[in-house]
Amino acid sequence: MKSKIAGTGYYVPEEVVTNFDLEKIIDTSDAWIQERTGIKERRFAKKGEETTSTMGAAAARMAIHNAGIETEEVDFIIMATLSPDYYFPGAGVLVQRELGLQKKEVGALDIRTQCTGFIYALSVADQFIRGGMYKNILVIGSEMHSMGMDMTTRGRGISVIFGDGAGAVVLQAVGDEEKSGILSSNLHANGDFAEELAMVSPGSHAGYHEKNPAKYGAEGASVYDSVFITPEVVENGLYFPYMNGQLVFKNAVIKFTQTINEALAKTGKTKEDIDMLIPHQANLRISQFIQKRMGLRDDQVWNNIQRYGNTTAASIPIALAEAVQNEAIQRGDLVCLSAFGSGFTWGSVLLNY
Ligand code: UT7
């Protein structure tokens, strides 16, 4: 038994936010954003009408339709996001409810590995299928970054980069004779870099990792005190994401390349065999660097960050679904998915589509 991607789907909100729109509220410029990241525009969800789970469910419906199965045939859900509807429960159960799958009481698992979330989710789903536990697993990446970014000049290093959207696949059990299937998945992490790309509050840390409880309003706190959201956290904007951009960039280009090569080496393939590389859409410059390193042509790498920005866990499944929709990927093609991001976490999945 192995697993194949039976159907792909994606959803992006209607509201287009261009770099010129951002110029009006932040000290930034279209030229800066395009030169450093390649991004021209991104989508922002309608607050109070759309959420991470509703977008995830919309992408899932398309994936289910394209897989040619009924929703009731889904027997497990894996949901990757860093921007869930609720602190808890995870967005997996909310997607389950949106799809009406609560009636079947199928399991719903949440994955928290940020930009690498979809790679981890796909790998976990693949193991469940190989182990014979499930037949059709819905694997989703969905993000609503616009829920909580610092849309002032203070936050410009982050706010101009990220966008909202969702992508999904149905991963299906197939026999060994089938030409489509996942060949290898590779997962990595290094917690030394946890705070280099992070949103640390609200949380339980109370300044522990920085050895600075006062910064988070937790100095002298008793065991009865709530330290989850303190006035200090709110006043100092400590609940916004932070990124050490240059450090992330330097590590990304190394690890992306390493993990793609790792997938090729494990399966006895070479870079010449790759029909399509779908890198996590972190930054067009990173994708171009990898493309050059791997010696791939433009038509062998899918880039859509220009239109959607960085949608973290959603970026790979959106790009995959778009590439399939545009017939840039055919059944049987060798496709490499690869990601790097917060954690640091990174990894790759090599598959025959
Ligand atoms: O998906 C997760 C993985 N994430 C990534 O892979 C992201 C990796 N990092 C990057 O893509 C880049 O580091 C960024 C695009 C985030 C930033 O580009 P950079 O070339 O590293 O810029 P920088 O942060 O070093 O900032 C350069 C200058 C600074 O000004 P000074 O100090 O040189 O005067 C910033 O204040 O650019 C300034 N700056 C901006 N200017 C206009 C930072 N953000 C902006 C902005 N608009 N939005």
Please tell me about this protein's structure.
The structure is a single chain. The protein is of the alpha/beta class and 353 residues long. The protein has three domains: 2-174, Peroxisomal Thiolase, Chain A, domain 1, CATH 3.40.47; 181-193 and 243-352, Thiolase/Chalcone synthase (Peroxisomal Thiolase, Chain A, domain 1); 200-228, no CATH class. 31% of the residues lie in helices and 22% in strands. It has helices at residues 19-23, 30-37, 52-67, 91-98, 117-130, 156-159, 231-235, 245-267, 284-294, 305-308, 315-325; strands spanning 2-11, 16-18, 41-43, 76-80, 107-111, 136-143, 165-174, 181-189, 197-198, 242-243, 276-279, 334-341, 345-352. The strands form four sheets. It has a five-stranded mixed sheet with strand order 1-7-6-4-5, with helices on both faces. Helix 3 packs across helix 4 and helix 8 (245-267) packs parallel to helix 9. It is globular, with a radius of gyration of 20 Å. The model has no long low-confidence stretch (mean pLDDT 97). Oxa(dethia)-CoA (UT7) binds at residues 28, 32, 36-37, 115, 156-157, 160-161, 245-246, 248-249, 252, 282-283, 286, 310, 312, 341.
